[in-house]
Design a protein that fits this description.
By secondary structure, the chain is mainly alpha-helical. The chain has two domains: about 90 residues, no CATH class; about 150 residues, Tetracycline Repressor, domain 2. It is about 75% helix and about 0% strand. It has eleven helices and no strands. Helix 4 crosses helix 6, helix 4 runs parallel beside helix 7 and helix 5 runs parallel beside helix 9. The longest helix has about 60 residues. It is elongated, with a radius of gyration of 33 Å.
Protein backbone atom coordinates (compact mmCIF):
# COMPACT_ATOMS: atom_id res chain seq x y z
CA UNK A 1 0.00 0.00 0.00
CA UNK A 2 1.40 3.49 -0.94
CA UNK A 3 1.67 5.76 2.03
CA UNK A 4 0.33 9.25 1.29
CA UNK A 5 2.97 11.92 1.70
CA UNK A 6 2.21 14.24 4.54
CA UNK A 7 1.32 17.67 3.31
CA UNK A 8 3.89 20.22 4.12
CA UNK A 9 2.53 23.25 5.83
CA UNK A 10 3.98 26.63 4.81
CA UNK A 11 5.18 28.97 7.48
CA UNK A 12 2.94 32.01 7.84
CA UNK A 13 4.15 35.01 5.86
CA UNK A 14 5.45 37.97 7.82
CA UNK A 15 4.92 41.49 6.84
CA UNK A 16 7.94 43.47 5.90
CA UNK A 17 9.54 45.01 8.85
CA UNK A 18 8.10 42.55 11.32
CA UNK A 19 10.18 42.15 14.45
CA UNK A 20 12.80 39.33 14.51
CA UNK A 21 11.07 37.76 17.52
CA UNK A 22 7.90 37.37 15.53
CA UNK A 23 9.75 35.73 12.63
CA UNK A 24 11.44 33.24 15.03
CA UNK A 25 8.09 32.40 16.58
CA UNK A 26 6.62 31.75 13.16
CA UNK A 27 9.49 29.42 12.21
CA UNK A 28 9.02 27.53 15.48
CA UNK A 29 5.32 27.05 14.80
CA UNK A 30 6.05 25.86 11.29
CA UNK A 31 8.54 23.28 12.63
CA UNK A 32 5.98 22.09 15.16
CA UNK A 33 3.45 21.57 12.40
CA UNK A 34 5.87 19.35 10.46
CA UNK A 35 6.55 16.96 13.35
CA UNK A 36 3.08 15.43 13.66
CA UNK A 37 2.94 15.00 9.89
CA UNK A 38 6.22 13.06 9.87
CA UNK A 39 5.04 11.01 12.84
CA UNK A 40 1.78 10.12 11.11
CA UNK A 41 3.57 9.18 7.90
CA UNK A 42 6.09 7.02 9.78
CA UNK A 43 3.36 5.25 11.70
CA UNK A 44 1.48 4.57 8.49
CA UNK A 45 4.59 3.14 6.88
CA UNK A 46 5.15 0.89 9.87
CA UNK A 47 1.61 -0.39 9.69
CA UNK A 48 1.87 -0.97 5.96
CA UNK A 49 5.25 -2.72 5.92
CA UNK A 50 5.03 -4.92 9.05
CA UNK A 51 1.34 -5.44 9.58
CA UNK A 52 1.36 -9.25 9.30
CA UNK A 53 4.44 -9.78 11.44
CA UNK A 54 3.39 -7.35 14.14
CA UNK A 55 -0.11 -8.81 14.37
CA UNK A 56 1.18 -12.37 14.46
CA UNK A 57 3.71 -11.59 17.19
CA UNK A 58 1.22 -9.72 19.34
CA UNK A 59 -1.46 -12.42 18.93
CA UNK A 60 0.82 -15.34 19.82
CA UNK A 61 0.67 -14.86 23.63
CA UNK A 62 -3.09 -14.39 23.46
CA UNK A 63 -3.54 -17.60 21.46
CA UNK A 64 -1.33 -19.47 23.92
CA UNK A 65 -3.38 -18.21 26.87
CA UNK A 66 -6.59 -19.07 25.06
CA UNK A 67 -5.45 -22.64 24.35
CA UNK A 68 -4.33 -23.07 27.96
CA UNK A 69 -7.67 -21.81 29.24
CA UNK A 70 -9.57 -24.18 26.96
CA UNK A 71 -7.54 -27.12 28.22
CA UNK A 72 -8.08 -26.12 31.84
CA UNK A 73 -11.84 -26.05 31.23
CA UNK A 74 -11.72 -29.45 29.51
CA UNK A 75 -9.69 -30.91 32.37
CA UNK A 76 -12.23 -29.52 34.83
CA UNK A 77 -15.02 -31.11 32.81
CA UNK A 78 -13.32 -34.51 32.94
CA UNK A 79 -12.84 -34.09 36.69
CA UNK A 80 -16.57 -33.45 37.01
CA UNK A 81 -17.37 -36.63 35.05
CA UNK A 82 -15.19 -38.64 37.43
CA UNK A 83 -16.17 -36.99 40.71
CA UNK A 84 -19.85 -36.07 40.36
CA UNK A 85 -20.91 -37.93 37.22
CA UNK A 86 -22.20 -36.86 33.83
CA UNK A 87 -25.76 -36.07 35.00
CA UNK A 88 -24.57 -33.39 37.43
CA UNK A 89 -21.95 -31.87 35.16
CA UNK A 90 -23.08 -28.37 34.14
CA UNK A 91 -21.26 -25.24 33.05
CA UNK A 92 -21.72 -23.92 36.59
CA UNK A 93 -19.99 -26.98 38.11
CA UNK A 94 -17.29 -26.89 35.46
CA UNK A 95 -16.61 -23.22 36.18
CA UNK A 96 -16.38 -23.96 39.89
CA UNK A 97 -13.78 -26.71 39.39
CA UNK A 98 -11.84 -24.74 36.77
CA UNK A 99 -11.73 -21.60 38.89
CA UNK A 100 -13.38 -19.42 36.25
CA UNK A 101 -16.69 -17.64 36.07
CA UNK A 102 -19.58 -19.30 34.29
CA UNK A 103 -19.42 -16.53 31.68
CA UNK A 104 -15.75 -17.29 31.01
CA UNK A 105 -16.55 -20.96 30.44
CA UNK A 106 -19.38 -20.06 28.09
CA UNK A 107 -17.07 -17.73 26.18
CA UNK A 108 -15.07 -20.78 25.07
CA UNK A 109 -17.92 -23.33 25.16
CA UNK A 110 -21.38 -21.72 24.81
CA UNK A 111 -23.24 -24.85 25.97
CA UNK A 112 -22.58 -28.04 27.90
CA UNK A 113 -22.81 -29.93 24.61
CA UNK A 114 -19.92 -27.90 23.18
CA UNK A 115 -17.63 -28.65 26.11
CA UNK A 116 -18.79 -32.28 26.09
CA UNK A 117 -17.71 -32.78 22.48
CA UNK A 118 -14.35 -31.16 23.14
CA UNK A 119 -13.83 -33.26 26.26
CA UNK A 120 -14.68 -36.53 24.52
CA UNK A 121 -12.20 -35.80 21.73
CA UNK A 122 -9.54 -34.76 24.23
CA UNK A 123 -9.83 -37.71 26.60
CA UNK A 124 -9.94 -40.41 23.90
CA UNK A 125 -6.95 -38.97 22.05
CA UNK A 126 -4.94 -38.38 25.23
CA UNK A 127 -5.69 -41.88 26.55
CA UNK A 128 -4.70 -43.54 23.27
CA UNK A 129 -1.50 -41.52 22.97
CA UNK A 130 -0.44 -42.37 26.53
CA UNK A 131 -1.37 -46.04 26.18
CA UNK A 132 0.49 -46.42 22.89
CA UNK A 133 3.58 -44.81 24.39
CA UNK A 134 3.47 -47.12 27.41
CA UNK A 135 2.92 -50.21 25.24
CA UNK A 136 5.97 -49.33 23.15
CA UNK A 137 8.17 -48.74 26.16
CA UNK A 138 8.30 -52.36 27.29
CA UNK A 139 11.68 -52.98 28.95
CA UNK A 140 14.06 -55.23 26.99
CA UNK A 141 13.55 -58.89 27.87
CA UNK A 142 10.08 -58.43 29.29
CA UNK A 143 7.40 -61.03 28.55
CA UNK A 144 5.08 -59.40 26.00
CA UNK A 145 1.97 -61.19 27.20
CA UNK A 146 2.49 -60.34 30.87
CA UNK A 147 3.36 -56.77 29.96
CA UNK A 148 0.25 -56.39 27.79
CA UNK A 149 -2.03 -57.58 30.61
CA UNK A 150 -0.43 -55.37 33.26
CA UNK A 151 -0.31 -52.29 31.02
CA UNK A 152 -3.95 -52.48 29.96
CA UNK A 153 -5.03 -53.01 33.58
CA UNK A 154 -3.17 -49.87 34.58
CA UNK A 155 -4.76 -47.84 31.81
CA UNK A 156 -8.36 -48.97 32.31
CA UNK A 157 -7.98 -47.57 35.82
CA UNK A 158 -6.66 -44.28 34.50
CA UNK A 159 -8.69 -41.14 35.22
CA UNK A 160 -9.36 -40.54 31.54
CA UNK A 161 -10.75 -44.02 31.01
CA UNK A 162 -12.91 -43.76 34.13
CA UNK A 163 -14.43 -40.58 32.63
CA UNK A 164 -14.98 -42.39 29.33
CA UNK A 165 -16.78 -45.26 31.05
CA UNK A 166 -18.99 -42.77 32.87
CA UNK A 167 -20.03 -41.24 29.55
CA UNK A 168 -20.60 -44.61 27.90
CA UNK A 169 -22.79 -45.72 30.80
CA UNK A 170 -24.81 -42.48 30.83
CA UNK A 171 -25.30 -42.58 27.05
CA UNK A 172 -27.52 -45.66 27.39
CA UNK A 173 -30.47 -43.47 28.39
CA UNK A 174 -29.35 -40.03 27.16
CA UNK A 175 -30.02 -39.61 23.43
CA UNK A 176 -28.03 -36.38 23.10
CA UNK A 177 -25.01 -37.92 24.75
CA UNK A 178 -25.41 -41.08 22.68
CA UNK A 179 -25.34 -39.02 19.50
CA UNK A 180 -22.04 -37.46 20.58
CA UNK A 181 -20.49 -40.63 22.00
CA UNK A 182 -21.22 -43.00 19.12
CA UNK A 183 -18.89 -41.45 16.49
CA UNK A 184 -16.15 -41.08 19.09
CA UNK A 185 -16.61 -44.70 20.21
CA UNK A 186 -16.42 -45.91 16.61
CA UNK A 187 -13.14 -44.09 16.09
CA UNK A 188 -11.86 -45.17 19.51
CA UNK A 189 -12.53 -48.85 18.74
CA UNK A 190 -10.80 -48.71 15.37
CA UNK A 191 -7.74 -46.91 16.69
CA UNK A 192 -7.39 -49.31 19.61
CA UNK A 193 -7.47 -52.28 17.25
CA UNK A 194 -4.93 -50.73 14.87
CA UNK A 195 -2.70 -49.73 17.76
CA UNK A 196 -2.69 -53.24 19.23
CA UNK A 197 -1.61 -54.71 15.90
CA UNK A 198 1.22 -52.21 15.51
CA UNK A 199 2.44 -52.74 19.08
CA UNK A 200 2.49 -56.55 18.81
CA UNK A 201 3.07 -57.16 15.09
CA UNK A 202 4.40 -60.74 15.41
CA UNK A 203 1.29 -61.94 17.24
CA UNK A 204 -1.07 -60.11 14.88
CA UNK A 205 0.76 -61.41 11.79
CA UNK A 206 0.71 -65.13 12.57
CA UNK A 207 -2.97 -65.19 13.48
CA UNK A 208 -5.01 -62.01 13.20
CA UNK A 209 -8.31 -63.65 14.11
CA UNK A 210 -6.84 -65.27 17.21
CA UNK A 211 -5.07 -62.05 18.09
CA UNK A 212 -8.30 -60.04 17.88
CA UNK A 213 -10.25 -62.60 19.94
CA UNK A 214 -7.58 -62.63 22.64
CA UNK A 215 -7.37 -58.87 22.63
CA UNK A 216 -11.12 -58.56 23.03
CA UNK A 217 -11.13 -61.14 25.82
CA UNK A 218 -8.49 -59.18 27.70
CA UNK A 219 -10.32 -55.92 27.14
CA UNK A 220 -13.76 -57.22 28.11
CA UNK A 221 -12.52 -58.90 31.28
CA UNK A 222 -10.44 -55.98 32.53
CA UNK A 223 -13.02 -53.34 31.70
CA UNK A 224 -15.67 -55.52 33.31
CA UNK A 225 -13.67 -55.73 36.52
CA UNK A 226 -13.39 -51.94 36.75
CA UNK A 227 -17.17 -51.57 36.51
CA UNK A 228 -17.88 -54.28 39.11
CA UNK A 229 -18.36 -53.51 42.79
CA UNK A 230 -16.04 -55.86 44.67
CA UNK A 231 -16.91 -55.79 48.37
CA UNK A 232 -14.23 -58.07 49.80
CA UNK A 233 -10.57 -58.96 49.14
CA UNK A 234 -10.54 -56.81 46.06
CA UNK A 235 -6.76 -56.69 45.54
CA UNK A 236 -6.32 -60.44 46.00
CA UNK A 237 -9.16 -61.30 43.64
CA UNK A 238 -7.99 -58.88 40.98
CA UNK A 239 -4.40 -60.16 41.21
CA UNK A 240 -5.62 -63.74 40.86
CA UNK A 241 -7.63 -62.78 37.77
CA UNK A 242 -4.65 -61.05 36.16
CA UNK A 243 -2.45 -64.09 36.80
CA UNK A 244 -5.08 -66.39 35.29
CA UNK A 245 -5.33 -64.20 32.19
CA UNK A 246 -1.57 -64.34 31.70
CA UNK A 247 -1.57 -68.14 32.00
CA UNK A 248 -4.51 -68.45 29.60
CA UNK A 249 -2.91 -66.25 26.93
CA UNK A 250 0.40 -68.10 27.19
CA UNK A 251 -1.50 -71.34 26.68
CA UNK A 252 -3.39 -69.86 23.74
CA UNK A 253 -0.15 -68.92 21.98
CA UNK A 254 1.81 -72.01 23.05
CA UNK A 255 2.18 -73.45 19.55
CA UNK A 256 3.39 -70.17 18.04
CA UNK A 257 5.74 -69.60 20.96
CA UNK A 258 7.21 -73.09 20.88
CA UNK A 259 7.83 -72.96 17.13
CA UNK A 260 9.39 -69.49 17.36
CA UNK A 261 6.73 -67.93 15.15
CA UNK A 262 6.52 -65.17 17.74
CA UNK A 263 9.07 -63.91 20.21
CA UNK A 264 7.50 -63.25 23.57
CA UNK A 265 10.53 -61.38 24.89
CA UNK A 266 12.36 -58.30 23.72
CA UNK A 267 11.32 -54.78 22.91
CA UNK A 268 8.04 -53.94 21.20
Amino acid sequence: MTVPRARKKSAPKLEAGAPAKSRSSARAKAGTAKAPARKRAGAAAGRSGNKGTATSASDAPRRTRSAATREEIIQATITCFVQIGYARTTTTEIAKVAGYTRGAVQHYFPTTEHVLKASVNYLTKSWLDSYMTAAREAPPGVDFIDYAVDTLWRFVNDRLFVAWQELVSASRTDKTLRRIILPAATKFERLRRDMAGSNFPDFAHVGRDKFDRNRDTLRFVLEGITSTILTYEREERVAAQLDWLKEWFHSSWQHELSTNQVDRRGSV
